[in-house]
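Collaborator request, handled under Task 6.
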Amino acid sequence: MSASTKPPCTPPALCKVGNCQIGVSLHAASDTVSCPLSWRLFLPPSWDGPQAADRRDRCRIPDTEHHRPKWHLALEMLDELAALGLRPAVVVADTGYGANADFRHALDERGLAYALQVKGELTAHAEEAVPYQPPYGGLGPRPLPRYRTRPVSLREHVLAAGRESPCQGLTLYQALGLLQHLIATWTGTCPTCHQPTPWQPYDTT
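Structure tokens returned to the collaborator:
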């Protein structure tokens, strides 16, 4: 019996049902090669609880292992690699992670730059928008900072930027290179080797 299987993983059009195992993996990647660094077996919720005790025993799943969201597993691997002195220049992930605000906040807390896929309907404020602090009236809890403008969808932001955007026509790796350059410009430190980096123009060719 295989651990952590969950049906179905085959499109209905193929007229069959297949069991599958889902892994969360962390890779070091360039424009020519990808090298796996770590991975975790994703344990679905159906493999937790008393009803799953028998198959957990047969698959020798430790009692300490339970269902955790995939983004938790990804952060755990990033933390393990960081403890070994390995920090990514940029974290890249699909919309399953990019649409998760908790995952993005966790990357921010770790000081990690990221380029995550998101859906067009996700909302955000414009770059120049800044929150303001409403005055405190003296009664009750202090009001939280808020924006004066409403957030709009990322699709609207992209359409408003138009075709004159400096990232227009760049490949993924050119865009990631530009992001690394911007990080180095802002911090004065290379995001890969963490050494001081003098400013220089970025060449997208």
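The cover message to the collaborator said: "The radius of gyration is 22 Å. Confidence is low (pLDDT under 50) at residues 8-16. Please let us know whether this matches your experimental observations."
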